[in-house]
Amino acid sequence: MAHDHHDHDYDHEHGSELSETQIRVRALESILTEKGYVDPAALDLLIETYEKKVGPHNGARVIAKAWSDPDFRRRLLQDATPAIATVGYAGRQGEHIVALENTPQTHHMVVCTLCSCYPWPVLGLPPVWYKSAPYRAKAVIDPRGVLKDFGVELPAETEIRVWDSTAEIRYLVVPQRPAGTEGWSEERLATLVTRDSMIGTGLPKSPGEVA
Predict the structure, then answer these.
(1) DSSP β-ladder status, 97-101 and 170-174
(2) What is the rounded CA–CA span in Å between residue 58 and residue 89?
(3) Which of 40, 81, 136, 140 lies 20 to 30 Å (CA to CA) from residue 185?
(4) Active site (annotated) includes residue 30
(5) Against a cut of 0.85, is the pTM above it?
């Protein structure tokens, strides 16, 4: 269940929230574009690939393995960083990852209230809305409202816990395995995992959506 169409709900204030580094990067990009060294369309495609395809696919494989391998799931929840490394994903922005398991009783959602700390090795680049001031503010004060904005409505009795990523700790949400997937291979299970479900702002796809 992709929710990219909701990005505009959280990025209208983003322009006023650029850090000094981001401003310099944009200035450099503008200069390189003017001189013909950079094709903006190609750059946008590259960013989109890492934001929505390559990165999230890594995380999806981790989640699928956790769904199908009880021993790996235990190790992932106990100490996520080394567990994820055994699947082949490690590196910068992934030095200390904590896995949070969603259950019928508890739903986890991740935000970075100070900037945009994000587990790059498993999720790729953070989406624009994740870095925006509106999302960072509303996720803390009205997480159920944020979920509704993304099309997710949970039972009133489900507790929603919001986790604030930092430079030291980044989080990966382990969504609930969809019903009706008994006997599925890890590869097939991975097709159900969405980027948003690993942030906590979405849910996995249902089996019918990928059949």
Answers:
(1) parallel
(2) 7
(3) 81
(4) no
(5) no
Q: Which of 19, 30, 68, 115 is catalytic?
A: 115
Which residue in the list 16, 30, 116, 132 is annotated as catalytic?
116
**Cβ–Cβ under 8 Å, residues 80 and 127:** no
Count H helices, E strands: the chain?
12, 4
State whether residue 17 is helix, strand or coil: helix
115 is catalytic: yes
Choose the catalytic residue: 16, 19, 117, 197.
Answer: 117
pLDDT in tens, the chain (211 residues): 334 434 445 643 334 455 555 566 567 667 767 777 667 776 676 666 655 655 699 999 999 999 999 999 999 999 999 999 999 988 777 789 999 999 999 999 999 998 889 998 899 889 989 999 999 999 999 999 999 999 999 999 999 999 999 989 999 999 999 999 999 999 999 999 999 999 999 999 999 998 6
Q: Which domains does the chain have, with CATH numbers?
A: 4-210 (3.90.330.10)
**Cβ count near 103 (within 10 Å):** 11
Active-site residue 116, yes or no?
A: yes
State the pairing for strand pair 170-174/159-164.
unpaired
Is-contact 11 132, C-beta < 8 A? yes
